[in-house]
Amino acid sequence: MEAVIINYRSNRHSQTCHHIIAETRGISKRDDAAKLVGKEVSWKSPAGKEIKGKVASAHGNKGALRIIFERGLPGQALGGKIEIKA
Asked: How far is 77 from 27, CA to CA, in rounded Å?
């Protein structure tokens, strides 16, 4: 299953670069997104490096996911695809 990175998790004063908000195709409700909590996720850079993470929780009521990566993702990752492993 693939997801698209929307943005970093942020507040008024700072952003957290290893927390990502992502949307998946076909999921439009919070209940459906909650079923993916705990799944492993990976993002591959153009150079071939892989950064792994986990789905932490649903974000909002429209099916977005909050994903925590082991290290921060670069800005070029925004709008890119990540793979959710079943």
From this structure: 21
Return d(Cα 45, Cα 29) in angstroms, integer: 29
Please report, for the domain that includes residue 77, its CATH number: 2.40.10.190
Domain count, the chain: 1
Euclidean distance between the first and final Cα of the chain, in Å? 8
CA distance 76 to 86: 25
Domain limits for position 74: 2-85
How do residues 33-68 score in pLDDT, each as one tens digit? Answer: 999 999 999 999 999 999 999 999 999 999 999 999
Count of residues in the chain: 86
DSSP 8-state secondary structure symbol assigned to residue 44: E
